[in-house]
Design a protein that fits this description.
Length: about 150
């Protein structure tokens, strides 16, 4: 099953909402430091409420620590970015994909984007809108991957 990876997330309610989506879909959530909050942050927990016991949460002190886990498990890194090369809706997802999302203000760092097997974008019609909210982007990407892989029963 695809996994969600947040690289340096900054806003607790976004991460809380993403954690709730991951709990509801039984999807592993990986947080890569530095974070813009503490995992115990009350805003983070408020967004997840009583769902926290169901979140398969993994915290990584650094990108290098996350890379070590990825090497053990395998799978593709798929970076979501407004500058991605492939429309997420026409991309073929695989069960062992890692869906990577960057911080709310800067997106994925260039070095992470360069390390991705593919970069994906979510099309938007209004050019004056820079990007979608991080929690919305994660939900859109995760549910499309789950749809393609037959996990929406």
């Amino acid at each position: 099953m695809p996994q969600v990876v947040l690289v340096n997330p900054l806003i607790p309610p976004n991460t809380g909402n993403i954690a709730r989506t991951c709990a509801a879909t039984d999807t592993e959530l990986h947080l890569i430091a530095p974070l813009g909050f503490e995992i115990s942050d009350r805003y983070l927990k408020r967004a997840g409420l009583d769902y926290w016991p169901y979140v398969k949460l993994h915290y990584h002190e650094s990108l290098e620590a996350f890379k070590a886990l990825h090497q053990q498990r395998g799978g593709r890194w798929l970076g979501f970015s407004v500058a991605g090369s492939h429309n997420y809706a026409s991309f073929q997802f695989q069960a062992d994909d890692w869906l990577l999302f960057g911080s709310e203000t800067t997106g994925l760092p260039p070095a992470v984007l360069a390390a991705c097997d593919a970069t994906l974008y979510i099309p938007m019609n209004q050019p004056k809108v820079r990007s979608l909210n991080l929690s919305v982007s994660v939900a859109v990407g995760l549910f499309e991957a789950r749809r393609q892989l037959g996990y929406l029963h």
